Amino acid sequence: MNFGLYREMLRIAPIRRVLLIGMIARFPHSAAGVLLTLHVVNTMDRGYAAAGAVAAVVTIGIAVGAPWRGRRVDTVGLRRALIPSVIAEAVIWSLAPHASFEWLLVLALVGGVFTLPVFSVVRQSLGVLATGEQRRTAFALDSIATELIFMMGPALGAVIATRSSVIGLTAVGLSSALAGLLLIWFNPPTRTPEAANSVTAADEQAAAAAAAVAVAPANVQEAPMELTGAGLPDGPQNLFGRLRNGLAGNFGWVTTSVAVVFAVSVGAGLLLSSTDVGIVALVEAGGNASEVGIVFVAWCAASAVGGILYGAMNRRISPMLLLLAMGVLTMPMAFATGTLSLALLSIPPGLLCAPVLSSASERVADLVSEERRGEAMGWYGSSMTAGTALGAPVAGLAIDVIGPWSGFLMAGGAASLLVLVTLTVRHFVRRPVPAA
Question: Is 130 exposed, middle or buried (0-12, 13-18, 19+ CB in 10 A)?
């Protein structure tokens, strides 16, 4: 390990700035999960399954919106892409705490779609500012910074929720909007100057080609029809060919290796959201809701330590193996008997949290070209939120039916099973087909 890598990385002013902006922008939503859960359970007097449903709707919205938001950053630039998010964050989360449960679900979905894309923007910018082996350290630093925020955010959210979850959720929306304005002001780079210039040139060529086609209809009519069907009306075959070509052009960057990383992201989201709900439920069941911050501090501090160690390593570890180990180590949290024992049992899986996310982000940055990296990071975030959407309600249902301890067994077992299934599928996809 070489801990001097961190000193070298933090000497780079743009990287320091991006990390600081990321911490500030992530803080509001780090408290939102606990605030929403306790708002539904305590203020609205609903169960944990209902709270999990709200969390699932939010994450479904994020999963739908993240690729679109990432693609907008790629095509129109960061500042224009963030304006809708700034407006939506301020309006929706100011209305949500005053809505009925049914309208809360609707607002949560819309709010998720327009959530400030902090994760993808910060990771995309770090992918530009750091290259090669530097990316491991840069992404590890971002994971460490994120864990520091999540040590404070949920604890603060729990304290505020015991007093007024309405004020807390409103504060989340307004502070998220301010964070978006801060991102617009600093405008961190999401593309190298060379790539930006090449995209501009490509756009000019495409515009010229479109203009040439538009002004030559007579020539097209006079030309003989080819048997390939290029000049035929839009029949089923032509439509299928266009659809196939369009999908190949839009998703040609999705290789088997990229799909495996997305599977890791799904498993990580499922594991983290289920563990999150399980921690709140177990501490709440003991009548000590205000102590939930103790567990989150231990869990996130362990993740920060794990991120520091991983970022200083000179070799890469497969994100699949890291996720498998994290899933297995999460299951013993079911045997906790109180806040202190739960905090201690959260340390082993917590040590692997930041390394899982750092390793997966590094793989995306390495596998996807720069001009599509914003979209790729958006899909990576969508995969994680899809896992979160699946994990939160299932864990909440298990907690309501069986007990708080069951959420940890479900979380660890499901994530481990997903890894094993993905590894099996990858083995058969990569296995050479025998000659006939």
Answer: buried
Total Cβ atoms within 10 A of residue 22: 25
Residues 395/401/402/406 CA torsion (nearest 10 deg) = 0
Residue appearing with tokens 């040609």: 252
| DSSP 8-state assignment for residue 331 | G
Closest C-alpha among 424, 386, 359, 297 to residue 142: 359
Question: Which of 292, 29, 38, 52 shows the shortest CA–CA distance to 171?
Answer: 29
Structural domains in the chain plus CATH codes: 4-189+254-430 (1.20.1250.20)
pLDDT at 330 over 90: yes
- The pTM assigned to this predicted structure is 0.63
**8 Cβ partners below 8 Å, 6+ apart?**
none
Distance CA 382, CA 262 (A): 9
Out of 180-189, 224-233, 316-325, 333-342, least confident range: 224-233
Identify the residue with better confidence: 130 or 306.
306
Token representation of residue 34: 């606990």
Q: Please, which residues have CB within 8 angstroms of residue 359's CB and are 6 or more apart in sequence?
A: 136, 310, 316, 317, 318, 319, 322
**Residue bearing tokens 């929720």:** 161
With contact defined as beta carbons under 8 Å apart, do 21 and 122 qualify? yes
What tokens does 229 get? 């069907």
What is the identity of the amino acid at 302? A
- Model confidence at 347, pLDDT cuts 50, 70, 90, reads very high
Q: Which of 361, 384, 304 is nearest to 138 (CA)?
A: 361
> What Å distances lie between residue 231 and 157, 210, 220, 223, 246, CA to CA?
62, 17, 8, 9, 18
Give the Cα separation of 157 and 31 in Å (integer): 5
Kindly report, residue by residue over 36-52, the tens digit of the pLDDT: 888 888 888 887 778 87
Separate counts of helices (H) and strands (E) for the chain: 18, 0
- Please give the C-alpha separations between residue 113 and each of 24, 33, 106, 109, 261, in angstroms, as whole numbers: 21, 16, 11, 6, 22
Q: What angle do CA 67, 25, 19 make, to 5 degrees?
A: 95
How does DSSP assign 135-174, residue by residue? HHHHHHHHHHHHHHHHHHHHHHHHHHHHHHHHHHHHHHHH
Residues 6+ apart with CB under 8 A from 245: none
Q: Which of 362, 363, 415 is nearest to 388 (CA)?
A: 415
